[in-house]
Specification:
single chain; about 45% helix; 6 strands
């Protein structure tokens, strides 16, 4: 109680502190620390003041003030814990239509709406190995066709199907500086991630489906050809 609220002491608390040697020491240390903190808050501290004070305090009074240091550590830890527990909601960004993940969603939507004969089949394994990915034995992949992303980056469009879900995958070996990002557009999501060469984008109906196919592809990584 003294560490949590050093100034709040009832008559019963004071009576116990007077009779208990250990609590008397803790109470004195808590009061001293509380007064020091109040004084420190009245001035603008210079850079690294907290570090210097804690180091000097530990050096000079390591034995006499061990309880006070423990209280200070608890106060600091409580503050850090509060900062960790409070996390603002993630910011929402509006991305350009040229962003690879957004362009991948547009490519999938166009392909779903396209009318005509399918593109000539090509070995999907070669396209996957070109970016350093693979397909495990419990899944299958079909070639859809060539495509282009954003500023004309060439890509290959395939469809990957597992036992539980299916998603379109855009393979882009020339995609530069790929960072993992999840975007939403046209009621679909695009999960972009880096590959051994370039990157790939999983376009699915939900984030969960996209992550499942992403995990499946990364599980069978190979050396790029």
């Amino acid at each position: 109680m003294l560490l949590a609220a050093p100034r709040e002491r009832s008559a019963i608390d004071r009576m116990h502190i007077d009779r208990c040697v250990k609590c008397t020491r803790v109470a004195a240390a808590a009061s001293e620390l509380d007064a020091a903190l109040e004084t420190a808050l009245l001035i603008a501290p210079p850079d690294s003041l907290a570090d210097r004070l804690l180091l000097a305090h530990a050096w000079r009074q390591r034995r006499r003030k061990r309880t006070a240091l423990t209280a200070a550590a608890l106060v600091l830890a409580s503050g850090l814990l509060a900062l960790q527990l409070y996390r603002p909601p993630p910011a929402l960004y509006t991305l350009s239509a040229k962003h690879p993940a957004v362009a991948a969603i547009a490519e999938v939507v166009r392909e779903h709406q396209r009318v005509g004969p399918p593109a000539p089949r090509r070995p999907v394994g070669d396209e996957l190995r070109r970016v350093g990915l693979g397909i495990p034995s419990d899944a299958r992949a079909e070639y859809v066709g060539e495509c282009r992303l954003g500023d004309g980056v060439r890509c290959q469009h395939i469809v990957v199907t597992s036992d539980v879900t299916q998603a379109d995958v855009i393979l882009a070996p020339d995609l530069p500086a790929v960072q993992r990002v999840l975007v939403a557009d046209q009621r679909m999501v695009g999960l972009m991630n880096a590959a051994a060469t370039g990157g790939f984008i999983v376009v699915a109906s939900s984030p969960d489906a996209a992550r499942r196919i992403e995990k499946l592809l990364l599980r069978s990584r190979t050396k790029p050809e």
